[in-house]
From TrEMBL:
Pfam entry (one): Redoxin
Record EC number: 1.11.1.24
Catalytic activity field: a hydroperoxide + [thioredoxin]-dithiol = an alcohol + [thioredoxin]-disulfide + H2O
Active site, renumbered: C65
CDD domains membership: PRX_Atyp2cys (cd03014)
Quaternary assembly: Homodimer.
Gene: tpx
Protein name: Thiol peroxidase
Family the UniProt entry places it in: Belongs to the peroxiredoxin family. Tpx subfamily.
PROSITE patterns: THIOREDOXIN_2, TPX
Length: 172
């Protein structure tokens, strides 16, 4: 049975129900299955030995999600090959690829949770009411331990970019 919890997260002030565990700093990062394309699937092990910043957005075609992904794309060039920045949304891989091309985003990897919401459930950010993933940031070290988590309290707000980037910098 899938774990549901009433969260402190909202959408325009309305409470949301998140599905999955409430992860904590120090937890082992759960594995996931995300689509790079309709047929290509990646998992946590595909990024083994790398420090990972996972930026979760509800939909890439909205203003805050667009800005969040562009910001991490700009920051990505400041880190070496041992760091990967992933953006996860439930948008179809086609829409993600179209958006990246139009936005000139080429340093972050966009991955889709559209098929079975595997990531959203594993990381406790799947929104029951919308079948979207809640805006969140996870920083995971090279040994796959979670070192930083921010699950936004309001879906329409920006994450704390500086705190997330400082957590990432501390690991490289």
């Amino acid at each position: 049975m899938t774990q549901e919890r009433t969260s402190v997260s909202t959408f325009k002030g309305n409470p949301l129900t998140l599905i999955g565990p409430e992860l904590k700093v120090g937890d082992q990062a759960p594995d996931f299955q995300l689509n790079k394309s309709l047929v290509d699937v990646v998992s946590l092990k595909d990024y083994a030995g790398k420090v990972k910043l996972i930026s979760v957005v509800p939909s890439i075609d909205t203003g805050v999600c667009d800005a969040q992904t562009r910001r991490f794309n700009e920051e990505a060039s400041k880190f070496g090959d041992n760091v990967v920045i992933l953006t996860v949304s439930v948008d179809l891989p086609f829409a993600q690829a179209r958006w990246c091309g139009a936005a000139g985003v080429d340093k972050v990897e966009l991955l889709s949770d559209y098929k079975n919401n595997n990531f959203g459930e594993a990381y406790g950010v799947l929104i029951k009411e919308f079948t979207l993933d809640m805006r969140a940031i996870f920083v995971i070290d090279a040994n796959d331990k979670i070192q930083y988590i921010e699950v936004l309290s309001e879906m329409t707000e920006h994450p704390n970019y500086e705190n997330a980037l400082n957590a990432l910098k501390a690991l490289v």
